[in-house]
Amino acid sequence: MPSSPTRRADSPVGPPAAGVERERREAQRKAVAELVRVGPALDRLSAAFTDAGHQLYLVGGSVRDALRGELGDDLDLTTSARPDEIERLLRGLSRAVWTIGKEYGTVGCRLAADSGPGGTAGNAGTDEPREWQVEVTTFRADVYRAESRKPVVQFGDTLDGDLIRRDFTVNAMAVSLPDRTFVDPYGGLDDLAAGRLRTPATAEQSFSDDPLRMLRAARFATRLQLAPTPEVLAAMTAMAERLSIVSAERIRDELTKLLLADRPRVGLDLLVRTGLADVFLPELGALRLERDEHHRHKDVYAHSLTVLDQAIALERERGHAPDLVNRLAALLHDIGKPRTRRFEPGGKVSFHHHDVVGAKLARKRLTALRFPSDVVEAVSDLVALHLRFHGYGDLAGSDAEWTDSAVRRYVRDAGDQLERLHILTRADCTTRNQAKATRLRRAYDELEHRIDLLAEQEELDAIRPDLDGNQIMALLGIPPGRAVGEAYRHLLEQRLEHGPLGPERAEAELRAWWAARQAG
């Protein structure tokens, strides 16, 4: 049966608390400033639509972001006009119009604001024209069916009918144009001020209509620092399995947005606690291993989230933009532990080869979620390599140390993931033992220093034998074939073991190897 919107019965009643009232006033102040900033674009749009007899509202995330003082150059609007009329009006305002979403009622354009005599709106202190990316959508009154999250598109006639269909109250606010009247029938402003995440209709109906909204709840909890209400939490937990009707690609996109947030830990933990993660990333929840009664091993789940936090901090310290591969590797680096856990004599717990097992699990899971192949390979390689340094760390402070050969192999195996491996390995230190943490940090500082020195001397980023395949064939007088590959690998091993050999020594090594091979 088609679903119809049901209004919530648990909206807060009575006057807001003093703290919430202060937050409301501050949000309104920010919104006024933001609307003044984008006023030229809104004025041009509202003039066109109202002159044609249509209602027009700034809506959804644009209003929410304006209230937070974060409105960017993307403007979302809704209108009583139908799609053909939206397109006609926008073409009268812009030469850059797109209709990709027209069947769903959305037409977009790039809109330059008219600043008056100059004809363009410049950024402060510059002559650069200011542009906004605008999307205008007809009021929607969609019908959802139980077997699909894709609605049967129906256009509506009222703003209220459009707003109740939206995912959360903080996205169900609007500002009418041109008069700038604030429209908030479901208490979104109070929820934003109180740090609360609610749905306009009942949470059960909202998530039944579109289960992907449960993942968006985790993202908004992270990005907007909003706490889901008990009703939202209960619905997410009870309806987690409904997420199975959502495509892997859409789940991947939401997970990516969450991971690239400043503090994804809150949202990830929410996904695990509600059971949503079990539907698409069960290896994450599986990290909550039952601790042994003597607490002789760390909480692997909490450790993994802390490694993610520390990897994000290191990204910033080392001057990198948010990096999906880095964050996936940090989150998944220990997912092989549940499969490899063993209780040893004396009460110790071991996870032998969890790096190898984890790399296979990461590749399988990320492939199932339709991540690009380069992301899958990079993450699985990092998981496989994340323990490699610890042999070096174990030697730090003793008379022994890694040979130059071992350092070259470390760099060779990391390949173009070396910087990410540096971040992951450093982030993986979560011990509370300050002496041990300091020793590991100094050991890795030393390893990075040695890598830099060898890189200057030997071009480590392009390790290859001193002779290429053509030179090998010419010197040995052999045609292309398996023997050439074997010779190449032998010279590569010599290069890794001894550093650059030079042409003469490389030729001597090659001829000696060939003579021994022939004799054998």
Automatic annotation (TrEMBL):
MF GO annotations: ATP binding; metal ion binding; poly(A) RNA polymerase activity; RNA binding
Occurrences of domain HD (ranges): 300-406
Region (Disordered): 1-26
SUPFAM superfamilies recorded: Nucleotidyltransferase, Poly A polymerase C-terminal region-like
Gene3D superfamilies: Beta Polymerase, domain 2 (3.30.460.10), cca-adding enzyme, domain 2 (1.10.3090.10)
Keywords from the named record: ATP-binding, Magnesium, Metal-binding, Nucleotide-binding, Nucleotidyltransferase, RNA repair, RNA-binding, Transferase, tRNA processing
Cofactor(s) essential for the protein: Mg(2+)
Record has Nucleotide-binding as a keyword: yes
UniProt record, GO biological process: RNA repair; tRNA processing
EC number: 2.7.7.19
EC top class, as a word: transferase
Pfam families the record matches: HD (PF01966), PolyA_pol (PF01743), PolyA_pol_RNAbd (PF12627)
The species this protein was found in: Microlunatus kandeliicorticis
InterPro entries registered for this protein in UniProt: HD/PDEase_dom, HD_domain, HDIG_dom, NT_sf, PolA_pol_head_dom, PolyA_RNA-bd, tRNA_adenylyltransferase, tRNA_CCA-adding_enzyme
Protein name: Poly(A) polymerase
